[in-house]
Amino acid sequence: MSEFWQTKKLHEMSQQEWESLCDGCGKCCLVKLEDYETAEIYHTNLACKLLDINACRCTNYEGRQQQVDDCVKLDPQNLKSIKWLPDTCSYKLIEQGKPLPDWHYLITGERDTVHQVLGSVRHFATTEVGVEEQDLEQHIIQWVD
Predict the structure, then answer these.
(1) Number of domains in the chain
(2) Does the reported pTM lie above 0.70?
(3) Which of 29, 50, 72, 144 makes the best surface tag, with the fewest CB within 10 Å?
(4) What is the pLDDT of residues 101-121, one digit of tens each?
């Protein structure tokens, strides 16, 4: 029997199905820096002030856009234009017609699998709280997907 993510396009999914695709890696909640001359995006190990790093979940998901000016609400319409999502992002994979990774909780039934395979920010992120703007570049990292 096929699962909803194998048979539906992203825009056909219910809100509950859409939300369930999130693997809980927390990578989209890391602070990103953009070079305004080249438009290149640099990822940091700094987590948004609202991210519970251990759980890799937003502490105010419903009100996040009111509290964080540059919080992007991912949806089927803007997914293709967001270039900073990791290659392992479930939304990107489904959009590209690829399967979910074996460690995804919809496959394993376990939310902690993403952390066990070191696929989340739990193991390396730190909060952005207290970091001065001039120090952000010191936190630039390279993705290893």
Answers:
(1) 1
(2) yes
(3) 144
(4) 999 999 999 999 999 998 899
